[in-house]
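User: Sequence for ABC transporter ATP-binding protein below. Tokens please.
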Amino acid sequence: MREGDTVQDGHTLEARGVCLGYGERDIVQDLDVTIPRGRISVIVGPNACGKSTLLRAMARLLAPTAGQVLLDGRDIQQTPTKEVAALLGILPQSPTAPEGITVSDLVGRGRYPHQGWFRRWTAEDDTAVAEALLATDVLDLADRPVDELSGGQRQRVWIAMALSQRTDILLLDEPTTFLDVSHQLDVLDLLTDLNRERGVTMVAVLHELNLACRYADHLIAMKDGRIVAEGDPSEIVDEELVGEVFGMRCKVIDDPASATPVVVPLGRHHVQPKQ
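Assistant: Structure tokens for ABC transporter ATP-binding protein:
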């Protein structure tokens, strides 16, 4: 949703003064961030900078040691789990499927948050599952056990489960893991379509900086548990930012296909072209 589009409706997600860690190890300290509604936000940064930790906190999978994550202005930790799951979907890193479960059954689990005490499986649930299978190109795998699939196939099945949940906010931790270049683009194009057609707010952690620049409306660059810069990739990504965040010498040029920034690394043995 580019070109100055605005979203008036939709659910809000933000972090206020959050501190995050595991045991006695602090990862994120006093971080503030507001996720733009109806847009695609991508979090980038070096390994162990706090990207996935922040995403886990926003998904209610990790409780802050201080501060709050707010979903529609309410502390997400104080919001009932099923209510959160009906509004916010999550694709974690390296998810594990129950042994022997089929693709269709796993994708169908994305509909659980919409099931009440007396609500049974409906035609709407069938439609949501079928559309998710089709969108991720795994419909022909519907009856296959998930543990028999390749890494790339399993990743697409997990994305299908997240899509079948039909939430207004979708958080994805490395959604292109295990995928070849073609399927990476397919997945990111699919997420873009969902954003533009349904107004779904997306937050994804990506390692590939150039893909992040191409697909993000809003880029969040992190280092050492803090946000170094955030905004439109075309406005914030330059040689200085890449050097500060990744410690890498580079040139930043315009992508001839998308007009978004392309980061060209410069190694120690980089040779200047002849004049």
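The chain has a mean pLDDT of 89.
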